[in-house]
Write a structure and sequence with these properties.
The complex is a heterodimer of chains A (159) and B (291). Chain A is built from five helices and five strands. Chain A has a five-stranded mixed beta sheet with strand order 2-1-5-3-4, with helices on both faces. The N and C termini of chain A lie far apart (47 Å). Chain A has two domains: 76 residues, Beta-grasp domain (Ubiquitin-like (UB roll)); 69 residues, DNA polymerase, domain 1 (Orthogonal Bundle). Chain B starts with 6 loop residues before the first strand and ends with a helix. Chain B is globular and about 60 Å long. Chain B has a five-stranded antiparallel beta sheet with strand order 4-5-10-6-7. A four-stranded antiparallel beta sheet of chain B has the order 11-12-13-14, sandwiched between helices. Chain B has a three-stranded parallel beta sheet with strand order 1-3-2, with helices on one face. In chain B, 35% of the residues lie in helices and 25% in strands. In chain B, α9 packs antiparallel against α10 and α10 crosses α11. With 291 residues, chain B is α+β, with helices and mostly antiparallel strands. The chains are: A alpha+beta (159), B alpha+beta (291).
Chain lengths: 159, 291
Amino acid sequence: MVKEKIRVQVNGSAMEADVEPRMLLVHCIRDVFRLTGTHIGCDTSHCGACTVLLDGKAIKSCTFFAIQANGREVTTVEGLEKDGNLHPVQEGFWQEHGLQCGYCTPGMMICATAFLKENPKPTEDEIRVAISGNLCRCTGYVNIVKAIQYAATKIAAGG
Amino acid sequence: MIPPAFEYCAPTSVSEAIGLLKQHGSDAKILSGGMSLIPLLKLRLAAPRFLVDINRLPGLNYITEADGFLKIGALTREAEVERSELVRTKYPILADTAAVIGDPLVRNMATVAGNLAHADPANDHPATMLALDARVVATGPNGERKIPIADFFTGLFTTVLAHDELLTEIQIPVPTAGTSGAYLKLERKVGDFATAAVAVQLTIGQGDVCERAGIGLTNAGPIPVKAKKAEDVLRGRKIDGETIRQAARLAAEESDPKSDLRGSSEYKRDLVRVLTARALHRALERARGGH
């Protein structure tokens, strides 16, 4: 099958890849760009482990073709930290122990990052709805919600 | 899971897209939000040779009222419908529906038009559009045609759209005074298809007398069901506990759900009855508030 060249802005850097049209974005991110923070969980668009930002919107990268990202911006978990400083969402997950095994964490943090941009002062219910497409089988979500509340407070205080 | 190989094109105008569809005929599939198609490709339940990605078509993402209709462009995402102030205030049935499709991440990609064109009777918008008496605009090589939603679905995953037609717009009549609706869905978990769901849009006059009732059922038969007998029994009568019970019973009779992992057909039929009654009560409350 003929491969096509795509150019994607990934975490602020211009990246190129030669992809078959059927290559999923998550495979391109992990296997071509070698950014393995984005996980593959269910591979059936249910679990959200593969969540990335596409032009700032959280999507499931297992249900999107890499070729569709041509010319667009992708942010993965590796793009959250800036100049050695954790993003407030990352800090929240650390401080509030918002993880146990860690498998869902990158997708959960990416989802939370996009959500807090849209809704900087969410209620607990709004947070729970926002992460309802991201499954965690360890925590019971309590500390994940606390982590996102921590991040909201931190961002409101100026990051 | 890796989809079968296909050729890909992302046209940048509607005419280019239609040209590609015409050229490739039944070998081509339209890729919109992809939230149904990509899983089907990954499961290899579909294997089109050519994908026409319409996501780069300009000017198809809008929610606006004009000429007596709410117009929703083909590339409008569910998340945008869910958050639209216009939809939330004047078309609560649509906001109800968008909010229970997939999950928040799926709704960032999924489109209303795709939800209709995919013609899965388990999808949510078909019932809602039946309740609303919506119509869709199909654009093909010979221009546009408008199709009433009641004529749109012809079978499982099948519509009246020709291979070289694109669903470009959805048109919903602007509600008159005393009109409102609701969509109620029972799902086992977020992201699941409905065990059953019911869409109701009511117009009431003085003394809660029903001027118009639209009732659509999700996952209650091989194609989306318009519960006509239930609609008819309400028209011209006062909507109260008794007429709601009658309509709910008729809607259950009109449904034809299949037994599956989500429940037996008997259970689902009774669920249609319960959800119809609840949706009618909610629509009535909202319609009264809208006077």
